[in-house]
């Protein structure tokens, strides 16, 4: 609690206003007090001068003014114009003082009404005494009530301002979080594009180098694949980098969905990997269905990352199998190879690949398990439920699909 003598911070303009108010009241009502009572009029002036500090020390000012009023009562002086300072001090403490001191001040004012009635109207008719008591009591209580109402209204306005400020802070924090999440997603997309494209280009470059002398046609084909892959990757990366520009608001408009690859784009992805020299068996089991945009993109990126890791680590002659199993409640994605990837020492920098796959799957409510297979090779298994978890996130549903994520899958077999 604030101490009774502790000053409140006050702007310079408010201090100047209080100085002018106290000066004006002192000159006008103080002069009238001196005109009424020559020497006792000084008590009226003494009740007006402390009003200079009425808002910085409201409790102390009321204590000082009421003390002078008691001294006036004890000295037998009549009521004078300077007594208006007592009402101003009561109003001020009810507005700016602590609640407990404000109520004490109201009690002091009520006691003053009784004292004034007994002293100044004690010889009057009882009806006149009651009338004056009610009139003075109504005046004191009215001044206090006006101040209390202003205090309540000020607190209400302050709460509204604080709530508005908090809402603005929450809005800015949510906007910053949304931007951060969007940039993280774009970074993951860029990693997928660049890593996959570079893996194919490296394999093709190595193959073309070895075939340059013995099979010029194979070398030309490898170079053509490198060029096509590089151009496609560069185009897709430019699109995603464009999303990072803050001034391109249309690119971030959630009402304009951006085309993303889905499971229907997997045959094209696998053909590109086959052109890079990797043997891939692609199989679809179960009853294919249309998938939500997020789920289709997640499945596509998991397959892409699995094939990229196979190109990097499986070694020459490795065979890869990609299986999509459309179960009753979830889609199972399996990417396996029989290469030497499991025996390669892990890098000190694990990169974003496996972490990205698990993050994607967790957003869709699924899981990813990756590790060496018994008997050699490596295996990635992702289980992705069709129904997204109801966690309050604004994720796409079955009624909001992006282009390229629908059906159109073969119903089974090896391709």
Automatic annotation (TrEMBL):
Residues 404-415 have a biased composition (Gly residues). Residues 391-401 have a biased composition (Polar residues). Its EC number is 2.7.13.3. Pfam families: DUF7134, HATPase_c, HisKA_3. It catalyses: ATP + protein L-histidine = ADP + protein N-phospho-L-histidine. Residues 182-247 form the Signal transduction histidine kinase subgroup 3 dimerisation and phosphoacceptor domain. The chain crosses the membrane at residues 16-35, 104-122, 128-146. Residues 299-386 form the Histidine kinase/HSP90-like ATPase domain. The keyword Translocase does not apply. GO terms for cellular component: membrane. It is an enzyme of class 2 (transferase). Keywords: ATP-binding, Kinase, Membrane, Nucleotide-binding, Phosphoprotein, Transferase, Transmembrane, Transmembrane helix, Two-component regulatory system. This is histidine kinase.
């Amino acid at each position: 609690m604030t101490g009774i003598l502790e000053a409140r911070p006050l702007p310079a303009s408010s201090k100047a206003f209080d100085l002018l108010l106290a000066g004006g009241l002192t000159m006008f009502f103080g002069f009238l007090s001196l005109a009424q009572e020559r020497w006792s009029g000084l008590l009226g002036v003494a009740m007006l001068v402390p009003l200079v500090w009425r808002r910085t020390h409201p409790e102390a000012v009321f204590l000082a003014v009421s003390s002078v009023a008691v001294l006036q009562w004890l000295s037998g002086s009549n009521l004078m114009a300077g007594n208006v300072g007592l009402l101003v001090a009561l109003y001020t403490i009810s507005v700016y003082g602590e609640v407990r001191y404000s109520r004490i001040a109201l009690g002091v004012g009520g006691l003053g009404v009784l004292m004034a009635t007994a002293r100044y109207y004690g010889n009057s008719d009882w009806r006149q005494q009651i009338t004056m008591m009610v009139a003075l009591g109504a005046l004191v209580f009215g001044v206090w009530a006006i101040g209390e109402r202003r205090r309540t209204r000020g607190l209400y306005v302050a709460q509204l301002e604080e709530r508005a400020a908090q809402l603005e802070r929450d809005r800015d924090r949510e906007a910053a979080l949304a931007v951060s999440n969007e940039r993280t997603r774009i970074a993951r997309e860029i990693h997928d594009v660049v890593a996959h494209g570079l893996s194919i280009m490296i394999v093709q470059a190595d193959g073309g180098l070895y075939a340059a002398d013995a099979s010029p046609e194979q070398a030309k084909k490898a170079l053509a694949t490198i060029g096509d892959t590089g151009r496609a990757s560069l185009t897709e990366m430019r699109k995603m980098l464009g999303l990072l520009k803050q001034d391109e608001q249309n690119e971030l408009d959630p009402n304009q969905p951006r085309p993303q690859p889905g499971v229907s784009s997997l045959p094209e992805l696998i053909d590109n990997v086959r052109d890079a020299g990797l043997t891939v068996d692609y199989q679809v089991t179960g009853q294919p269905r249309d998938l939500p945009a997020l789920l289709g993109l997640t499945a596509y990126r998991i397959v892409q990352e699995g094939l990229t890791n196979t190109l990097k680590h499986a070694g020459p002659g490795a065979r890869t199998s990609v299986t999509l199993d459309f179960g009753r409640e979830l889609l199972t994605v399996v990417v396996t190879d029989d290469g030497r990837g499991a025996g390669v020492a892990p890098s000190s920098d694990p990169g974003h690949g496996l972490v990205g796959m698990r993050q994607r799957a967790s957003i869709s409510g699924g899981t990813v398990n990756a590790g060496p297979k018994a008997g050699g090779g490596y295996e990635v298994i992702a289980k992705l439920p069709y129904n997204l978890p109801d966690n309050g996130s604004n994720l796409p549903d079955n009624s909001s699909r992006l282009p390229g994520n629908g059906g159109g899958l073969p119903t089974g077999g090896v391709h």
